[in-house]
Amino acid sequence: MPLPDAARSRRHLAETFFTERGRFLLSWDEGPVLGTVQDDGALHLDVPADAQRASTDTRIGLDGDAVLYVESREVLVTVQMDDAEVVVAESGLSGRSQRWHATLPPAEHGHWTLTDVVDAWDEEGAHCLVLTVEDGAGSVEFHQIGAGKPARAHRPRVPGQLVYWDLRCDAAVLREDRGPWDSRLHLERPLSKATPQAVEARWADGWEGHGLLIETPSGSASRLVGWDLAAHSRITIAGPAGHIDAARFTREGSGRVLVVATVEGSDTLHLWNPDDDENVQLPLDGTGRLRIRTAGSRGIGIYRVSTLGGSSWIWLDQDGNLHRSGGEIPRHGGQATLSHVWYGRTPALRYLPEQPPVAAVVSLHGGPESLERDELRWDGLYRELLDAGVAVIGLNYCGSTGYGPLHAQRAWKTWTTAFREDVESCIAAAAEWGVGPAGIALLGGSFGGALALLGCVLRHDLAGAVASAPLIDIRRHAERAAAADPSYRDWFGARFELAASATPAQRVFDPGHLCATDPGQRVFLVHGSEDEVTQWQHSKRAADEAVRRELPWTLVTEAGAGHVPADLDEAEHRYRNIHSALLQVLGMDPVTEATS
Q1: Suppose 379 and one of 12, 14, 168, 317 were both cysteines; which one would form an S-S bond, judging by CB atoms 3.0 to 4.6 Å apart?
Q2: What is the DSSP letter of 515?
Q3: Residues with Cβ within 8 Å of residue 317, at least 6 apart in sequence
């Protein structure tokens, strides 16, 4: 069945967003300088018509074993390696390019294989590259190379990915991922060979011998920490309030730090000055999600997207001024509104249509330790619901981050009681708009998909649920995660009841328990057959059990798709499946596009 005109316009928005979020913001030259990798395998530049510095050559080849964009020099670097021989090609945005060679010492076993490359500084303060290579026996080494200079080798003493290298302060920082916990950062001394030192934090940035970390201590909110790599000393930065999402040094010599912090579901932008400990919130028009895309000596580039506000590119120059350019996602044309509200103890983003709502969708993010932000969620689906007169409640349910540790931990091992409170609060809010439980659908992805099913179990008078790539069986999921990384065992154990002897109701997120929906509730599971995070087989088992119980469940299998769409076709397909399923749950002119 062909899509009606309204659905075709929705599909266009989803396509536009998927394409735009995959573009690289490389620089600013009277507007954003953007790059897109196209079908020919090259990076194609989109340069403003009145650009002063960027080249008119809008195609840069990406032939090589590794590709790196060096923000500080605005140069795209490709590295081609043939055993110990390395060829480096540098293509600047200004059109200037150069090509140079380097030779690595021979591998002790077999041949070198290139696995990573970072921009770095040598002892004299000159820019160089550091290659991460592995020999035939699996031994890892770092090799510093530069044009016309001999290679310097360093064998790391601890595991991890190299994130920073500056021999001016004899520092190499490696990041050791630890599953759900903050990374362990190891500081090694390639010159002095001193004993490595470690901290537990998320690496945000490094510049001029200093690291910028985001720490999340147990029982505390996230905080910024400055790390002096020469002295191995740390100092907590008086950063802004809210959930700190990202931070970068401004790179113009002042040591100032640009910080993105999420407050009440929307990102805010702050400039912190270490000299006087001054924290200034930069003016932004409206709300939205901010993602730092590049940070160089001329400024910092940011991508911004909002459900109602559309998208834009933002540039912070050396003087602290903001420049803006509209993106391809337009502002929403209607009179829908967004506000941050509290329903009892539950925070939410409330989207209301222009006219009184005819139905409501409660949207549940994944995680659980994530948060609902004002961004183009579900590829713009909220807009289409608002246009159809459907209110959307983007719920930051108990267990979400961004509202302090008490809110995040309130649901641990008490998910039924805690989430029931969240659901009841949403039902009460919808009643004030004249929408009863039968006009409310639950929409969730990943862990949020499991909550959507749980909500229907808790309230049999809700219309139903749409669960995308749901986490159906928490015990088996935890076992699989712990087998890959043992650190997940304690993480899951602190939050969920996992004992095999426990009943499904005690475990809560169990196929047998989540199937206990009502015959009057429509339930759709949308799941990729090759999901690498949650298991399609678990959804299949739950759907089969529901059908055995003669419940109106539908499993929509997306053949070959993963946990999230990997390309434009998969994104469009999932969007259509979710949209069609929601319409059917709400009984609003269903368009059957999903295929079982």
Answers
A1: 14
A2: T
A3: 28, 298, 299, 323
Q: Give the residue among 422, 350, 363 at the shortest CA–CA distance from 578.
A: 363
CA 342 – CA 421 distance, rounded (Å): 12
Tokens of 559: 């053949």
- Strands of 210-215's sheet in order across: 202-207, 210-215, 223-228, 233-237
**Pairwise CA distance, residues 588 & 574, whole Å:** 19
Per residue in 383-399, is it b (16+ CB within 10 Å) or e — as a string?
bbbbbbebbbbbbbbbb
Which residue ranges form the domains of the chain, and what is each CATH number? 61-207+242-326 (2.120.10), 337-472+510-586 (3.40.50.1820)
The string of pLDDT tens digits covering residues 314-366 is 999 998 899 999 999 999 988 999 999 999 999 999 999 999 999 999 999 99
Q: Tokens at residue 525, please?
A: 């599971």
Structure tokens given for 144: 């510093």
Rounded distance between C-alpha atoms, residue 555 and residue 348, angstroms: 29
Tokens of 174: 């490696």
Q: In terms of Cα–Cα distance, which of 384, 430, 446, 433 is closest to 582?
A: 384
Amino acid at 282: L
Q: Is 233 helix (H, G, I), strand (E, B) or coil?
A: strand
d(CA 321, CA 330): 24
CB 221 within 8 A of CB 405: yes
Label residues 356-379 b or e (16+ Cβ within 10 Å = b).
ebbbbbbbbbbbbebbbbbbbbbb
Each residue's pLDDT tens digit, 254-284: 888 999 999 999 999 999 887 777 888 999 9
**Distance between CA atoms of 506 and 499, rounded to whole angstroms?**
9
Which residues, other chains included, contact 413 with Cβ-Cβ below 8 Å and sequence gap of 6+?
A: 495, 496, 497
7: which 2 tokens?
């659905």
Q: Is 22 left (phi over 0), alpha (psi -120 to 50) or beta?
A: alpha
| Maximum CA extent, the chain | 75
Q: Which helix (H) or strand (E) holds 207?
A: strand 202-207
Q: Which amino acid is at 80?
A: Q
